[in-house]
Task: inverse folding
């Protein structure tokens, strides 16, 4: 199973095995990682599963979808490498992915 | 069979016995009938958090395209494109993403100074007297002004907009609504829109006029005039009625929990969590309807395609499986998301606005009235197919005491008007029927009641044009029926017709008594 690392704003890392097919958001939410709210449950309407993609992964993860670009305006402190975790589906190719969580959702 | 002879759990959205406190009935549904079927109105309802969450997220099984209100789904009302709250993909996705940019928390939080100013204007004149009304003075004022400002509607026209919205959105308590003549198009807004086209500003109307998107045919285009009018109509309605209810519940619930109110008064940092708890405890929109597009199951029982189903947000918000001691109001509870703003793809777009309005309203009330009691004898609670909350809620400080007479409550209670009295004879297919109508004229409109062997019913939409009078009456016996009257008055008599729903027209004569 692909291993994903979520790093909290205060630096605490969480290394998890996330089943391929789930989203990056579900991986965090199902394991109660603090710092991912995901209020709408993955409909891409709330902007509360905001993550920063670690530098090494930005190219492979790619840019935002059209609807994501609209919704991410709900998020705080958006950066060019900001993504909504509900829009990233875990595959084996993402084994080792590192994402950082914002100060607040 | 149960050893105890207890009737099966029951709830229906039109039965007034549930209005004031639906929670005991919902609690029984959660525990004894997690998939509830109401035979009388032919709908299903689920009440557990897990089920409501699942249903609201599964937009392929539970579609929005036939409406989100029980009667609307049952009546199979055609819904024009642009009514995004009642759309499915791909239309919904396109329309929603256009509006998403407008309602971001950042933009809504920037409205704080204006929202505070609206509250101050509404409340300041009342401080000295120590009496105020959560609805009449604040709930029906501030959210309206905020949405008007966002839309760019001139302040002097806001009240007529509100009136329109009320007529369109507010259904009558205890009654199913008739959506057969329901208008979604924002008819009152054409003039503003045309004016805005020529005079762009920085408001929402201008933003909608300029927004470009790729439509279902792959064409890059702007919104049509009709689409914008529909958007505005929905936003004006949503921005008015729901936050109004939140402000009413804030007044009622905090008056019943003075200890927690005192804590909030002393530590305003508690306001956001207090508003979240109010939203959970008394959701302004306690149920959400969907049409079942394919066979599905809850708790091993089948729900067939073609059914109407209600997701009882108000019940799910108190589900003990999710909220410890869920029936208690506690601003200090751990943050577990409530479902008041819905869940999934149709989750409330205006939640950031509602939250900021609710928080500021509470803060500004506490600044002026640290303590209050609600005058429940003169308050009036209404529960319709869309919202549940206070129509009027007078309050007073301990020092000021109760107001001697309340005017608001008398109006809201729809007292039978005095004035003219008419004896009407209707020739129905079941034989002649006599009715007594009392009516009170008010310019080009009138209100009144009709007493007949079928019961006492309010006259709705009474209109006067010269000698022509028209009105509507909804009867529930012997069948649920909308009766539309068109008569011509000549002195002390009237003649005309009454359209008896699908049963055709009946001749009518009337004599003044």
Result:
């Amino acid at each position: 199973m692909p291993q994903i690392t979520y790093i909290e704003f205060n630096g605490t890392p969480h290394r998890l095995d996330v089943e391929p097919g789930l989203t990056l958001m579900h991986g965090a939410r199902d394991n109660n990682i603090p710092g991912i709210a995901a209020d709408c449950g993955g409909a891409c309407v709330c902007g509360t599963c905001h993550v920063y993609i670690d530098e090494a992964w930005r190219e492979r993860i790619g840019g935002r979808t059209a609807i994501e670009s609209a919704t991410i305006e709900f998020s705080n402190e958006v950066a060019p490498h900001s993504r909504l975790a509900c829009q990233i589906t875990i595959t084996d190719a993402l084994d080792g992915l590192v994402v950082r969580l914002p100060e607040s959702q | 069979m149960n050893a105890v002879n207890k009737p099966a759990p029951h709830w229906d959205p039109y039965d007034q016995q549930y209005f004031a406190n639906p929670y005991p009935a919902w609690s029984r549904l959660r525990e004894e009938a997690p998939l509830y079927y109401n035979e009388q109105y032919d709908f299903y309802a689920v009440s557990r958090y897990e089920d409501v969450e699942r249903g609201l997220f599964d937009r392929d099984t539970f579609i929005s395209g036939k409406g989100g209100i029980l009667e609307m789904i049952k009546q199979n009302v055609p819904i024009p494109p642009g009514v995004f709250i009642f759309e499915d993909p791909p239309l919904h996705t396109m329309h929603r993403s256009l509006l998403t940019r407008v309602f971001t928390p950042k933009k809504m939080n920037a409205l704080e100074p204006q929202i505070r100013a609206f509250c101050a204007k509404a409340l300041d004149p009342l401080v000295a007297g120590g009496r105020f009304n959560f609805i009449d003075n604040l709930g029906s004022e501030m959210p309206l002004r905020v949405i008007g400002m966002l839309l760019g509607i001139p302040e002097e026209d806001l009240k007529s907009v509100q009136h329109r919205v009320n007529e369109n959105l507010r259904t009558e308590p205890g009654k199913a609504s008739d959506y057969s003549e329901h208008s979604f198009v924002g008819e009152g807004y054409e003039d503003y829109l045309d004016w805005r086209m020529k005079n762009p500003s920085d408001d929402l109307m201008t933003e909608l006029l300029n927004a470009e998107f790729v439509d279902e045919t792959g064409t890059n285009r702007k919104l049509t005039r009709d689409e914008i009018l529909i958007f505005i109509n929905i936003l004006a309605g949503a921005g008015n009625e729901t936050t109004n209810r939140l402000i009413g519940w804030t007044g009622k619930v905090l008056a019943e929990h003075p200890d927690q109110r005192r804590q909030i008064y002393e530590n305003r940092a508690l306001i956001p969590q207090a508003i979240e708890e109010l939203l959970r405890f008394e959701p302004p929109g306690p149920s959400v309807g969907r049409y079942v597009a394919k066979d599905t199951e809850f708790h091993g029982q089948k729900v067939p395609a073609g059914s109407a189903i209600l997701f009882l947000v108000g019940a799910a918000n108190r589900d003990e499986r999710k909220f410890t001691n869920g029936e208690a109001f506690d601003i200090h509870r751990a943050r577990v998301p409530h479902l008041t703003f819905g869940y999934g793809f149709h989750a409330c777009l205006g939640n950031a606005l509602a939250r900021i309005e609710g928080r500021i309203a509470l803060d500004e009330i506490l600044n002026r009235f640290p303590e209050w009691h609600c005058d429940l004898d003169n308050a009036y609670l209404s529960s319709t197919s869309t919202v549940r909350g206070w129509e009027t809620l007078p309050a007073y400080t301990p020092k000021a005491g109760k107001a001697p007479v309340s005017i608001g409550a008398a109006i809201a209670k729809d007292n039978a008007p005095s004035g003219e009295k008419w004896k009407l004879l209707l020739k129905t297919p079941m034989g002649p029927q006599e009715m007594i109508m009392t009516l009170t004229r008010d310019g080009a409109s009138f209100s009144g009641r009709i007493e007949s062997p079928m019961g006492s019913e309010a006259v709705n939409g009474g209109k006067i044009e010269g000698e022509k009078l028209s009105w509507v009456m909804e009867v529930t016996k012997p069948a649920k029926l909308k009766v539309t009257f068109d008569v011509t008055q000549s002195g002390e008599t009237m003649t005309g017709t009454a359209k008896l729903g699908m049963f055709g027209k009946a001749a009518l004569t009337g004599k003044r008594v």
About this structure: Chain B has two domains: 46-396, 420-512. Residues 281 and 328 of chain B are 8 Å apart (CA to CA). Chain B has 17 helices and 22 strands. Residues 46-396 of chain B form a domain with the Cytochrome p450 fold (CATH 1.10.630.10).
